[in-house]
Amino acid sequence: MGGGGGGGDSDIAPHPEKIKIVATCLVVSVGISLLGFYLKSGAEWRSNWSLSFNKNKKKKKPIRVYMDGCFDMMHYGHCNALRQARALGDQLVVGVVSDAEIIANKGPPVTPLHERMIMVNAVKWVDEVISDAPYAITEEFMKKLFDEYNIDYIIHGDDPCVLPDGTDAYALAKKAGRYKQIKRTEGVSSTDIVGRMLLCTRERSISDSHNHSSLQRQFSHGNSQKFEAGGSGTGTRVSHFLPTSRRIVQFSNGKGPVPNARIVYIDGAFDLFHAGHVEILRLARTLGDFLLVGIHSDQIVSAKRGAHRPIMNLHERSLSVLACRYVDEVIIGAPWEISKDMITTFNISSVVHGTVAENDDFQKEQDNPYAVPISMGIFKILDSPLDITTTTIIRRIVSNHEAYQKRNQKKGESEKRYYEDKTYVAGD
Q: Which among 201, 247, 249, 380 counts the fewest CB atoms within 10 Å?
């Protein structure tokens, strides 16, 4: 009986091992539930945080910076200043000073306002342009920049900008705490470029008269006669620019053409990069997906244009072209004649040339540089939007060289002080 009773108790009471297994399963089940809840909650929290962050990020006001200038005879130094200014914000607004203001403060500009507007609008780091900007930042104009254009900071280079009365042109912006400074690109300025041409005029032959046609001949056809002491029969191209691979990378888009892209090729000297160049490049870019620009070497340009050409050296010209928003890539030191191998190597779909150019009778030449693309049926002549060439710019300076000499002497004194004891560095 006792044994039977004991058997009955064992049927009623759970076995210790069973209790242990059930307890373990229960703990695991609760643990998995809690882990799932934690992971789900964490995912929901991260998702909500991400949405909130992105929402706040979208709402964040872009930093708008302003930079002004004359941008006369625009060069790679101007472009580098705009590149640096753009890096200090999200959007760059550029003010282009009026012709009247330039005349009052510096002397006559080489390029009129409408041409300077074309040049500035074409720089790939510029988002918006204000025409007829004042030379000095007045209280009224500064308020307009802050209120109407939503400008956060006013930018200028580290070189002094002094008004005729001796005051700082950016004093008000500095006082307002809305001023930022960038490093100036040493080794080039509009004054320097005009000076290169004026220096050439002083190298003319002793027997030459001082009339405009005589000066013009030196730039159009070179001058192989004897020069005054200090002159050079190979031409004068004084440049303080030391090219670096870093600067070229900064100006480059860094992207090649996508597969099956239609690549358009245009070549030239692109000396004293001007509005005529910009407009033909803009037009060429509309004909394809990728614009490749060939820039001829200094030796080729001298041989074809004259001993005093080019005014800007190969790397200076390359940077100016690279800064143009319509240009995707450049060939630095492109050959004069376009070969079949070159067309194949760069997968060129179309070769174009403008109607307004320094050399517009190339098809009459025995060594037509475009003979191969013409034979392949991929050559096209484009109607140039503007009747401007490098010679046009040179003529403007030559015809009014006395006024520009006075302007340069005045500006040159301050620039000389700036450059003293300075060595060119690639900068930011």
A: 249
d(CA 394, CA 391): 5
Tokens found for residue 104: 């009052």
The span from the CA of 103 to the CA of 108, in Å, is: 5
User: Rounded to 10 degrees, what is the CA torsion of 98, 104, 107, 112?
Assistant: 20
What is the model's pLDDT at position 67? Answer: 97
Take residue 115 and report the two structure tokens written for it.
């041409």
Residue 382, token pair as written in the block = 């484009």
The answer to whether 189 and 415 are in contact (CB under 8 A) is yes
Q: Is 274 left (phi over 0), alpha (psi -120 to 50) or beta?
A: beta
CA dihedral of residues 360, 361, 365, 369 (deg, nearest 10): 20
For 192-247, the pLDDT digits (tens) are 787 777 766 554 433 344 444 444 444 444 333 332 333 333 344 456 667 788 99
Specify the pTM: 0.75
How many residues belong to the chain? 428
Peptide bond into 310 cis (omega under 30): yes
Q: Residues 15-45: pLDDT tens digits?
A: 556 555 555 555 545 555 555 555 455 555 5
